[in-house]
């Protein structure tokens, strides 16, 4: 199996400048390759440029511009061109599926924050001993950079990436490992229902409160963004010191909220995986659930729109994104695989409207957001607990239906 590790690195001032130049030059390569593809398609011949053709040009590009392109790893530049190729593949896939296409866009320097090295030893060298305070990673054109390695890396390192997040720099490794030993069986099964009022309700009647990290930080974020909005929009190299500090403050607050969500997701999933052999959850279409409301034109008055509940939907979308369901489910699946647990996603339709006692399904069974009262048999319970019970039953039925 493949596992990823993320470590904070502590470059010197000179190394920070070299890393920034690396991102800048790879961003320039990405944009130039994108421009070549656009120009080729707009040509009357409708020529298609592919990754193989652009990769073959790298040798000439490096010879033409040795100061900027020639100093970096050849394989990392190939990875940047492959990144563009994947963006176009995703674009054409969305067109084929009838989704919103989203044509690949040019990247600004501040939006291009990652460089990948496809192989350890080719342009980068991970040289570390577990719990060694002198752990370092060597990047071509940068040198040996100190790494804050907070845990050992098991297995053989396959790829290495360097990433900038605000004013911090990280190294991300992927290592190939043997499948770990599964955790001892507990004999416990559980269904979970994700929500807004409570982050999680399980089939045993327990609840995990919603921390609402985004709402907690909303006042500070609003103040920081207002301060940033007072500065005129200028190029990055033309910003004043106060402008740059305002940008960094907003980025720092967003980064803190993101790390808080990750921490909550890791701790919650770890508890679930340790205590239960089988976990069932709803197969949520989070992207569709958080989609903006379409405008509602007034058929009698052209150019006028009728109320469509956009304000309320915006608040709901913000709460859904603040809960971080997508990150939670991704981490849950990953931890369960490592621990030898089974995770099953089931159809979420009517899970909170079906009576777990008599099986009657009706909209009237849920008179309020929290209350479940079956109109057929009179069963009463918390609506989220009922949903978790029905999710568990559907998950167990699906497991039994699967061939051995």
Short description:
The chain has 404 residues and is an alpha+beta fold. Helix content is 42%, strand content 19%. The longest helix has 35 residues, at 241-275.
Structure description:
The protein is of the alpha+beta class and 404 residues long. The protein folds into two domains: 2-176, no CATH class; 189-401, no CATH class. The protein has eleven helices and 14 strands. It has a seven-stranded antiparallel beta sheet. Strands 10-9-8-11-12 form a five-stranded mixed beta sheet.
Task: Please identify the structural class as seen in this structure.
Answer: alpha+beta
- Rounded radius of gyration (Å): 26 Å
Number of helices: 11
Q: Judging from the principal axes of the Cα atoms, what is the shape?
A: globular
Tally of strands: 14
Helix % is: 40-55%
| Count of the domains | 2
Which percent band covers the strand fraction?
Answer: 15-25%
Largest sheet: 7 strands, antiparallel
Order of helices and strands: EHHHHEEEEEEEEEHHHEHHHEEEH
C-alpha termini separation: 22 Å
Low-confidence runs of at least 5 consecutive residues: none
Mean pLDDT: 91
Provide the spatial order of strands within the biggest beta sheet: 2-6-7-1-5-4-3
Secondary-structure map:
Blueprint (H helix, E strand, L loop, with lengths): L1 E9 L2 H30 L8 H6 L1 H7 L9 H24 L16 E4 L6 E4 L8 E4 L3 E6 L7 E10 L2 E9 L12 E6 L3 E5 L4 E3 L3 H4 L1 H12 L11 H35 L2 E5 L3 H4 L20 H14 L1 H15 L2 E5 L24 E3 L6 E3 H19 L3
Parallel strand pairs: 8-11, 11-12
Antiparallel strand pairs: 1-5, 1-7, 2-6, 3-4, 4-5, 6-7, 8-9, 9-10, 13-14
Helix pairs in contact: 1-4, 6-7, 7-10
């Amino acid at each position: 199996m493949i596992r990823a590790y993320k470590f904070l690195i502590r470059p010197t001032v000179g190394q920070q400048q070299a890393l920034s130049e690396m991102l800048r030059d790879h961003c320039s390569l990405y944009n130039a390759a994108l421009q070549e593809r656009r120009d080729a398609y707009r040509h009357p011949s409708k020529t298609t440029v592919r990754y193989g053709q652009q990769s073959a040009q790298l040798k000439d590009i490096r010879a033409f511009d040795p100061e900027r392109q020639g100093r970096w790893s050849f394989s990392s530049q190939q990875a940047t061109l492959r990144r563009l190729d994947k963006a176009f593949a995703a674009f054409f896939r969305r067109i084929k599926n009838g989704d919103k296409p989203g044509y690949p866009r040019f990247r600004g320097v501040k939006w291009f924050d990652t460089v990948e090295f496809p192989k350890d030893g080719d342009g980068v060298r991970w040289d570390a001993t577990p719990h060694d305070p002198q752990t370092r990673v060597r990047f071509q054109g940068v040198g040996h950079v100190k790494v804050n390695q907070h845990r050992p890396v098991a297995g053989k390192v396959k790829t290495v990436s360097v990433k900038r997040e605000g004013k911090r720099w990280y190294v991300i490794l992927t290592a190939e490992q043997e499948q770990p030993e599964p955790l001892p069986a507990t004999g416990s099964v559980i269904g979970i229902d994700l929500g807004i009022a409570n982050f999680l309700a399980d089939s045993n009647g327990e609840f995990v409160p919603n921390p609402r990290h985004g709402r907690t930080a909303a006042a500070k974020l609003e103040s920081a963004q207002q301060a940033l909005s007072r500065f005129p929009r200028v190029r990055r190299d033309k910003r004043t010191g106060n402008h740059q500090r305002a940008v960094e403050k907003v980025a720092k607050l967003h980064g803190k909220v993101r790390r808080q969500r990750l921490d909550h997701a890791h701790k919650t999933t770890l508890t679930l995986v340790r205590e239960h052999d089988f976990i069932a959850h709803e197969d949520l279409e989070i992207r569709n659930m958080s989609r903006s409301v379409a405008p509602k034109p007034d058929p009698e008055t052209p150019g006028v729109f009728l109320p469509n509940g956009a304000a309320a939907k915006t608040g709901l979308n913000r709460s859904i994104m603040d809960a971080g369901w997508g990150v939670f489910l991704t981490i849950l699946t990953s931890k369960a695989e490592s621990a030898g647990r089974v995770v099953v996603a089931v159809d979420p339709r009517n899970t909170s409207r079906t009576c777990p006692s008599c099986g009657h399904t009706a909209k009237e069974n849920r008179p309020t957001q929290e209350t479940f009262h079956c109109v057929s048999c009179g069963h009463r319970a918390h609506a989220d607990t009922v949903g978790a019970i029905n999710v568990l039953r559907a998950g167990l039925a699906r497991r039994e239906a699967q061939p051995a």
